[in-house]
From TrEMBL:
Alphabetized Pfam families for the sequence: Methyltransf_32
GO biological process terms on file: methylation
Record-annotated Methyltransferase domain positions: 155-292
Example of a GO MF term: methyltransferase activity
InterPro entries: Methyltranfer_dom, SAM-dependent_MTases_sf
Record-given protein name: SAM-dependent methyltransferase
Keywords for the protein's UniProt record, in alphabetical order: Methyltransferase, Transferase
The organism of origin for this protein: Solibacillus kalamii
Length: 387
């Protein structure tokens, strides 16, 4: 089979709307940051679409496209990858490409027909079931006493559940033979702090102690009243600054949501020095690099204030993720909540592994910050731990 014929045939099979799932993998270049792309059919507002999940080293991105647009996308992907595994209702197809695009096509019939799942727009199964009454959601005004999610609070409910998904994913990294110590810096009104406590203590029955820390005395007093009303005995809220909090010598999980500018870096540095097994951070207002960014090669972009601000924010979070990797964490940048709900939608998730970085990894980091003329606050905070 010729290369062009293979692409046409694969697109035709997908166009028949019998695709169950597919994976495009085996990058042609080892340096390719994009490791694989997964495809699955979804239904969005009644339209049949293909969802592409781009799996990078530490980032996942999603894109939904029509069947018509898929052909162009496949052309681009086959310039980067050499292997396809696609499962359809009645057959499984395996495609292997040589360096010169010689095609090896293998097709096996499925012995039992399978059904296509177009569940993208169906009712989402939340970890905090929206058909049940959750006392903390009622007390926080998200849910009515008879269990209905208030219309104006549904985005908050989705955000809470997305956060609980990250908490659930982290369970394997937390200790099982003692009390799990958790700190939430900049807890604010503490929707997510209460959700974390409820899920781990009430739903999972774990032995935990949670502290929320914030500078606003009135907010902390209200949160403590709510915790008392809910009889959350192992949840406390304290007034304090990240730098001045010295009541702990070791912490298992550190959460920092929307801590402004280098306050995020302060929290990350404290988490590392406490030996936190899990770090979950949603940064906010990344001004530090924006002030430093004077790169002539990027002037076409950075002459526009809005673009410069967004680039600086993305670069800052990339630097943070890489620094955590350099001090022994498996780190990813993930989508926290849909952009339509909040622009602050990147979450830094880091699990401590103790893995030593390679010299190449450190070199790549140094080259990046030199190119940006950057002097990251977090790098300075962790300087003695870096190779």
């Amino acid at each position: 089979m010729e290369f062009e014929q293979m692409k046409v045939q694969l697109h035709a099979l997908i166009s028949n709307k019998t695709l169950l799932q597919a994976t495009i993998s085996q990058p042609r270049q080892k340096s390719n940051d994009l490791k694989r792309v997964k495809l699955k059919p979804v239904e969005i507002r009644g339209d049949y679409m293909i969802q592409l999940e781009f799996q990078y080293e530490r980032i996942l991105k999603h894109e939904n496209i029509t069947i018509e647009d898929l052909a162009v996308k496949l052309d681009a992907l086959f310039e980067q990858f050499r292997q396809v595994h696609a499962e359809f209702q009645e057959q499984t197809v395996q495609v292997q490409l040589s360096k010169k695009n010689k095609v090896l096509w293998k097709s096996d019939q499925n012995t039992t027909a399978k059904q296509v799942n177009l569940s993208h727009n169906r009712k989402k199964q939340y970890l905090l079931d929206d058909s049940r009454v959750h006392p903390f959601l009622v007390r926080l005004g998200v849910q009515t006493e008879d269990g209905k999610i208030k219309n104006q609070k549904y985005d908050k409910f989705k955000q809470i559940n997305r956060f609980v998904e990250f908490i659930d994913d982290s369970l394997a990294h937390l200790p099982k033979d003692r009390t799990i110590r958790i700190l939430d810096f900049g807890s604010g009104k503490s929707y997510l702090t209460f959700a974390l406590y409820h899920y781990l203590k009430i739903e999972k029955g774990l032995d935990i102690h949670v502290t929320g820390l914030d500078l606003k005395k009135e907010v902390i007093e209200e949160c403590n009243r709510i915790a008392a009303d809910l009889q959350y005995e192992d949840l406390q809220f304290l007034v304090g600054d990240i730098n001045d909090f010295n009541e702990e010598t070791a912490v298992d999980m550190v959460v920092t949501l929307h801590a402004c500018d280098v306050a995020t870096d302060m929290a990350l540095a404290r988490a590392v020095r406490w030996g936190a097994k899990v770090i979950l951070s949603v940064p906010c207002c990344q001004h530090e690099l924006n002030r430093q960014l004077q790169v002539p090669a990027l002037s076409i972009m950075t002459q526009h204030g809005l673009v410069k601000e967004r680039f600086a924010a993305l670069a800052t979070d990339s630097i943070r993720a890489e620094l955590l990797s350099l001090v022994g964490y498996d780190t990813q940048l993930l989508e926290f909540i849909d952009m339509e709900n909040t622009p602050k939608n990147i979450l830094i998730r880091a699990y401590h592994t103790g893995k030593k970085p390679t010299s190449e990894q450190r070199l790549k980091y140094d080259e990046f910050v030199r190119f940006l003329y950057a002097k990251p606050f977090l790098e300075n905070e962790l300087q003695d731990l870096l190779l």
